[in-house]
Fold:
Amino acid sequence: MALQAGIVGLPNVGKSTLFNAVSNSAKAQASNYRFCTIEPNVGQVEVPDDRMKVLEELVQPQRTVPTTIEFVDIAGLVKGASKGEGLGNKFLANIREVDAIVHVIRCFEDENILREEGDINPIADKEIIDTELQLKDLDSVEKKIQRLEKMVKAGDPKVKHQLEVLARCKQHLYEGKNIRGLELEGEDKEATADIFLLTEKPVLYVANVDEAALLTGNKYSDALVKMAAEEGAQVIVMNNSIEAQITELESPEDKEMFFQEYGLTEPGLNRLIRSAYKLLNLITYFTAGVQEVRAWTIHTGWKAPQAASVIHTDFEKGFIKAEVISYKDFVQYKTEAACRENGKLRIEGKEYIVQDGDVMHFRFNV
Structure:
C-alpha cells in the first residue's frame, strides 16, 4: 500500500531541507527509520513504532519488517501556479497524485534567506497556496458541471445529485474555502472522485521555526496553530535544519547528547511521520513469528479479509478466519501460547474490524 504525503510550500520556506532531512536518515544505521529513493523526489520512510521493538524482544525473530509511507518533495509554488506560472503545472500534477499534503510554512526571520512575499506572515503564505489550489479545483468542478449538464436531460437521478454536490463545491470554492471542509461522504464523495480535487486532500502543517523557538514556538507558529485549529488541522512545530543535523549523527550516544542539548526527547521527524500516517487514516497490525515480526499498513475500518489482502490477495479470496490477539494482551502474556491458554486468542470472522496493534494470523484456503 504505497500511500503518499506530498511536501509542499512556497520557495525558501525549508521544504527541501525537510525532505533532505528525511532522505539523510538513510546514512545513519542507528536511526529509527531507513529511507530508500524510489524516484529522485520520492522517499519511502519507516513509520517509527515502539511496539515493533517490544514484539522483537518477546518473539526474538530472525528479522523485523516495519511499515512505511512515502514522502514526495513537490516543486515550490508561486502565485499564478493555477495558470501555469513558475513550476505551477508540475506542482499541480504532482500534488494531484498524493493522498495527503504536508504544508511547510516559514515561521522564522532570516534576512539571508530570500523572501519575495514581504514580511514573515504564515497565514498569508498559507492562503497563497490555498488560493492556487482552490482556483485549480474551481476549474475542475466547472468543467465537470458542463459535462454533466449535457447528460442531465436524460433524467438520470444520479447525474442530478452529482450536479447538486458540484454546485455546493463551486460555491464553497468561490467563498475561498477548501473542499475538505465540506466533509463529503458516500454518494456525495462519488461526485468528485474522478476529478481528484486538490483541496479535498487532508493537510498537516509544519511550522518551520528558528532554533530559539524549537521548544516554545513563536508568534508566527502560534498564529498558525490558532488558524489550523479552526479548520481541524494539526501543526508540527520543528526546526528543519536541526532535523537535518540529527540525521547526520551516526552513533546513538551522539544523538542522545544532541537531544539533551536542545531539550528534545526524539527527532521532530518522528512526530511528523506518525502524524502523516494518522492523517492518511492508516493503522498497523502485526504478524509475529520466529521467522519474522512484521508491521502491515491498512486503512482504519478495514475488515479482516481486507487486512489479509495486504499480505497476499489469495488470503482475502480464500479467507476462512483470523486468529487475533490484542497488542496489550500479547505484551502481558508474552507468547502466543500463553495468550491461547488464558483465553486471549480470539477467532474472528469476515466481519471483524481490525484494530490498531492487533497481532494476527490468517487461515485461508484457495
In short: Confidence is low (pLDDT under 50) at residues 26-35. The radius of gyration is 23 Å. The longest strand covers residues 100-107.
